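Re: weekly structure request thread

Next one in the queue (364 aa):
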Amino acid sequence: MKFLVLLSTLLACFAHANVQFNNQEIAFMKQFYLKQGEQLTLSQTQQRLETLYFHLALAKQKAPTLLERVSSVGFSTNYHKKRYMISLLDIGFAKISAPNIALSSTELKQLLGNYPHNGIATTQLLAKLTQSLTTSYTLADAYNDASMQARFNLHQGDIKQLAELVKVEAHYQTVKKQHQNPNIRWQVLESLSTSQAITPALLNYLGVKASMHNESPYLYSLKQQISASEIAKYYQQNKQQFRYSSEVTAASLIYSSQEAAQNAYKNNALPRQLNSKKVVIKRNSLNNNFVNQAAFNLSTKQGPTLLRTPKNQWVIIQVFDKKYDYYLESSETVVYQAKTALATTLAKKQYATAKNQWLKGGQL
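Done, posted below.
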């Protein structure tokens, strides 16, 4: 009876687990990461693999388009997966010969026609690209794998570009054929490789990691949920973050040549000269004035600073004092920064909760 209870408990654990890796798979990936310069323990490796599987499950539900292509201008996710699989499994024994492309440059141009204005081929065009490049790889497959620039090159009849795409496919098929270890499952490695390709874009989409190039639509939706009271609370808790220089007391001396400026800089009379030129500069008088802008950016601790102006003049600036003020709670600066910070915190919290539940066998 005790044995049956124990067995049923074990079966329940495996039934509710969303991911299982065997020891050889974990050891294999640990060794791969070591070659990449990362020293992870077996436990850390397992955690990373579990995270990658979680990201794959998350992408299928939240951002399935990433499984096709991470970026509209980049190569396909399938292409990136193949490249990663090659780096995982090719230990130098795979012999890849230059692919023999039966198409000529002229034939390729005729098949593809003019490059589409939006960079996306029609389904009608893809349906015509049935020419086999390898036993299981057609011209349509190569076109789908290609980046926007590569597709443009193909429309120009670039056979070398086509050969590069075919070479990656052939290399991938070779390492697949040579992979003989049943304890390191091919499907597991493919899933990990796919997840590796999409993870940065997925985390950006979910708002967990910010991107300099575009804002996550998911993060944008979270920002709309931030209330005025939450912004007010954030403002009070992080008020120093919203401090800015409202005015500075500074002095400047302008010279037409670098030599004259350097001589003045070394002159013992410089402190007295600068003291006699002190002025108060208000923030609203910055405009495009180089000297005023430089004064706001310099510290009171720097002392006299020699700078070259955009007009090819030389100026010595010293900041003597700064006064500070705070952005208003209702200002665009405060609202934007507060919403971004609070929404990012919420996104990370939701991500961590979903991951914890999923690793325990729960649904996303």
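The beta strands are 132-134, 137-138, 243-255, 279-282, 305-308, 314-326. Residues 1-16 have pLDDT under 50 and may be disordered.
Next request, please.
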